[in-house]
Amino acid sequence: MVPVFAPLSVVPVRGEGSRLWDQQGRDYIDFGAGVAVTSLGHAHPVLLKALQEQAAKVWHISNYYTNEPALRLAAKLCAATFAERVFFCNSGAEANEAALKLARKRAVDKYGPEKIDIIAFNGSFHGRTFFTVSVGGQAKYSSGMGPNPAGIVHIDLHDEAALRRAVGKNTCAIIVEPVVGESGVVPVKPEFLKLLRDLATEHDAALIFDEVQSGNGRTGALYAYMNTGVQPDILTTAKGLGGGFPIGAMLTTAAIADAHFTPGVHGSTFGGNPLACAVAEATFDIISSPEVLAEVRRKAAHAATRLRAIGEKYGCFQEVRESGLWLGCELKPEYAGRAGAFMGAAAESGVLVLVAGPNVVRIATSLVITDEELDTGLDRFDSACQRFFAA
Ligand SMILES: *Cc1c(COP(=O)(O)O)cnc(C)c1O
Description:
By secondary structure, the chain is of the alpha/beta class. It is built from 13 helices and 17 strands. The site of pyridoxal-5'-phosphate has 15 residues, from helix 4.
């Protein structure tokens, strides 16, 4: 394979719940969930059944036809959110690509070719297609590949003055992650989201919430926007949506979709695939239940309390940010840049964690992790911290 990844030496071969086993039969507690993807853990019986049942019926039929799992999933997503229309695709980047194209199309249709400016935030991540790396706020992902698409402005999160300078009559979209994931699990202040909403409305620009990582129960709300009091015009999601089966979705209103995403304007060969939609529907049925979401919040509070205590014991974290079962442990300045190395140490201690940039250890567990798995993982995390930071 091309060397764009630098995988750890551990090769997981089997999983069950929040445990994974490697080629040597060693077990690990999975605190990464495949980067916030396996929202119901590994080998969940309900998802297995949904996959097997659909696999025996039909795998793929293309978008020349529709299919029952896609229709059902779209109806459920619309019933549970602000949305009235859904576009299915296969990843977060594709969902954002669709959102950005739709926002541009809408603005150009309504106001002409000048209204193409997209406001985005430094440090944000929206995927790896050329449009989404250009909109994402991390130059290292978008530079060195020739000219980037025009009309994209990056400003700092929470910089109200810069925002007011940047937004204008040619703004077609403002795109933000309500909780910034790859840059450290940082929740955006609700008053700032409100300001984005007001400015987008004032200039008739689309407000896009990238909930690829924050969506599908991750924060303890079904979608993070539901806890902010601010409603977007377009919402993108993927990662946890399929519980491990690749699927992405862009959600929007009928007014926007029906006028501007007409037949032929956008598409996808695999988008809305029946297998993906069947598994996502089964996943959605579980994570959208109030009981499961309440459990996410209870377990998240427990995990945050223990992680803060671990941080005090070894003097390693300056802050532990909790957004549901999605936690960012920010290293103290003396350990700056060492999150990646800690990830290896944690694996040696039998717990698989993530990073979010060089200074934040990120944890994203299954949303249905058991108390036993959570505490065993935290015990192993404690041992890893002792070896790595106290040694
Ligand atoms: C992971 C992620 C993406 C990209 O998703 P892919 O499925 O890798 O294309 C986009 N936005 C956010 C916020 C993400 O966390």
